[in-house]
Specification:
Shape: globular
Low-confidence stretches: 1-214
Radius of gyration: 33 Å
Largest sheet: 15 strands, mixed
Number of helices: 19
Mean pLDDT: 74
Number of strands: 27
Distance between the termini: 77 Å
Strand order of the largest sheet: 13-14-15-16-17-18-19-20-21-22-23-24-25-26-27
Helix content: 25-40%
Oligomer: single chain
Length: 613
């Protein structure tokens, strides 16, 4: 008899069947068959063992009104029976079917369950299959059953069906399967609350933690408005939100997923992250402003297209050392009109002509990183400088063919705006530095190869009074007298980072003038391979550079470093000291320093690292 009823149930008229996101729902005698969305047309049932056919020979309680027939599915969850009317089924599959927009109610049958345990989230497992890949997640439906008097509680839903947003709805290529088994070790991946129901997709955690009452609900902080809590959480990084905030309690987890807190994502540590996982995250960050995917393997056009669609307001993107092509760059610049900063460092598959034509479309671009893009020539830099309205930062390090002509074209158009300039310097002469001296707002200047520069360049640099970061490497023609005059006469009151590595003519007298001129505000000092320095110069550093955080004296083989014993007391902010190739400094001295200054990290002659244990 039951088999006959079931056969009759499946033979309902086609006109009474409605397909919603791959689910067949029959009006007369409910039949829910999960279909593979990828094979909607003519595919066989892929979820036969997971779907449930409900024998609806039992009469509806609303027989007198045939137009208000119920649509319900019976699913066994933790030995409980949950009868869901048509609006609830509609909501689970994310449908907008207009024929079910009627007042409805949800009857939750508790059966013989212990009422003490009813006030918990009812967990249903469900399997999301995307492009052939299966991922285990959970669909958690929350009901407040504290006031259950009998075996059935009625929860009234609103007139309009609840429609899930993008976060819980699948696209047309997703396959959904209801599964009656519940894995108590896992829950889903994200919170979305809809009236009496809560859908959760969280990183895999213990269900007991999710269901237990949080201790933070009793705190004063818990009573603050969500807007204030969001403001407080805005000072945390996304990593801190995931590891330290979200696990605390439900409310904190819910707030930590607010879109306004997810404006910067850094995937540089995950070069092999799958496209599915990358785009899954990006789809949930519509307010994203900064994206770092440097070093990512096999960046595709499809990925960038979805990134630009999900995050149209992105302002900063880092493709450093990615194999991006002109097509990808074109897609990015066409769909991200708010783009302000771009990094294509080391992207050697691009071509100069196409690259500059695509970039000039983004009129808000102000920060450009072309480091080690060897395809760039003077003409490309001049073209960009002439067509972009305001360039504040440009990195051309590692492009050895650029000459004074490129620097001149850049400065002529943007001398009022330039704040950061990085040059390779191999073909830059004193004339190029003279052009840069007109950039009065310049705060960061780096030249990697100063072999063509003379003391005349140091005279030009005196005009730059806002320098915070100065790098002049391999200035083999800078004389000791020219360097001393520069530090004595230049206005370097704002200088915090100074790199004079491989300026081989630097002497102890130059270091004394340097320390007296800007030692108090220096945070980072690099003097590697300055061979003529002795302990006298090192004493000047210890005496005057009390706020240093990093000191690099690699390759200085004439120092014994006895004055370094004063570091724990007189250089309290020092955190890093590089003593590689300093063969006369004994390890016993290093051990004593580290023992007395616990936050200090020192590298000895052999490259071995000493830290406090």
């Amino acid at each position: 008899m039951e088999a006959a009823d079931s056969e009759t149930l499946r033979s309902c008229d086609a006109e009474n069947v409605v397909r919603i996101n791959g689910v067949n729902i029959e009006h007369n005698g409910i039949c829910i068959e999960n279909k593979n969305i990828d094979d909607i047309e003519g595919s066989e049932d892929f979820g036969r063992h997971d779907s449930h056919v409900v024998d609806n020979t039992k009469k509806n309680t609303n027989e007198e009104d045939p137009d208000n027939c119920q649509v319900s599915a019976e699913v066994d969850i933790n030995e409980r029976m949950v009868n869901v009317e048509k609006d609830h089924v509609d909501d689970l599959v994310g449908s907008h079917c207009s024929s079910f927009k009627q007042n409805a109610s949800v009857h939750v049958a508790t059966g013989d369950c212990n009422l003490d345990t009813i006030n918990q989230d009812v967990a249903k497992s469900f399997c999301l299959r995307h492009d052939g890949t299966e991922e285990r997640v959970k669909l958690v439906t929350s009901y407040d059953l504290e006031s259950v008097a009998d075996d059935v509680e009625e929860i009234i839903l609103p007139d309009e069906p609840v429609v899930r947003n993008e976060i819980t709805c699948s696209n047309d290529k997703d396959d959904f399967r209801m599964n009656t088994s519940v894995n108590p070790e896992h829950v889903g991946e994200h919170w979305v609350t809809r009236n009496q129901k809560t859908y959760e997709f969280l990183p895999y955690t213990n269900v007991d933690k999710l269901l237990s009452k949080s201790g933070c609900e009793e705190s004063v902080f818990h009573d603050l408005p969500d807007e204030l809590i969001i403001k407080i959480f805005s000072f945390l990084t996304t990593k801190e939100l995931c590891l330290n905030v979200a696990p605390v309690c439900r409310k904190w987890r819910q707030i930590s997923l607010d879109n306004s807190l997810w404006k910067c994502l850094d995937f540089s540590s995950y070069p092999h992250l799958s496209s599915l996982n990358l785009l899954w995250v990006l789809k949930r960050t519509p307010l994203l402003k900064k994206l770092i995917v440097s070093g990512r393997v096999n960046v595709t056009h499809a990925e960038v297209a979805i990134i630009t669609e999900c995050c149209p307001g992105i302002q900063e993107i880092d493709f450093g050392f990615c194999d991006i092509t002109g097509v990808i760059l074109k897609c990015l610049t066409e769909n991200c009109p708010e783009l302000r900063k771009i990094n294509i460092e080391g992207c050697d598959k691009l071509e100069q002509d196409k690259t500059v034509r695509y970039l000039v479309r983004c009129k808000k671009l102000t920060h450009l990183n072309f480091s080690h893009c060897m395809f760039f020539q003077d003409s490309g830099i001049i073209f960009l400088a002439a067509r972009l309205p305001e360039i504040k930062s440009i990195n051309l390090d590692g492009i050895s063919f650029l000459t004074d002509r490129a620097v001149q074209g850049l400065v002529e158009k943007h001398y009022l705006y330039l704040e950061e300039v990085e040059l390779d310097g191999a073909e830059i002469s004193d004339l190029g530095v003279e052009q840069l001296s007109h950039c009065k707002q310049l705060k960061h200047l780096g030249i990697s190869f100063c072999e063509c520069l003379t003391d005349q360049s140091l005279q030009y640099l005196k005009e730059l009074k806002n320098l915070v970061n100065l790098r002049l490497r391999k200035g083999s023609d800078f004389s000791p007298q020219g360097l001393s005059n520069f530090f004595k006469e230049a206005s370097l009151s704002k200088l915090q980072v100074l790199n004079l590595s491989e300026c081989s003519l630097i002497t102890d007298e130059v270091i004394l003038d340097l320390a007296q001129a800007c030692g108090k505000q220096l945070r980072d000092l690099s003097l590697s391979w300055c061979w003529f320095l002795t302990d006298t110069g090192l004493i000047s550093i210890v005496d005057h550079c009390c706020n240093l955080e990093s000191l690099d004296i690699l390759g200085i083989d004439k120092i014994y470093g006895e004055c370094l014993s004063r570091v724990p007391e007189e250089m309290t902010r020092l955190q890093f000291l590089d003593l590689r190739q300093c063969n006369k400094i004994l390890d016993n001295l290093i051990v004593d320093m580290v023992r007395r200054k616990k936050d200090l990290r020192v590298i000895n002659y052999y490259g071995e690292e000493f830290i406090h244990d």
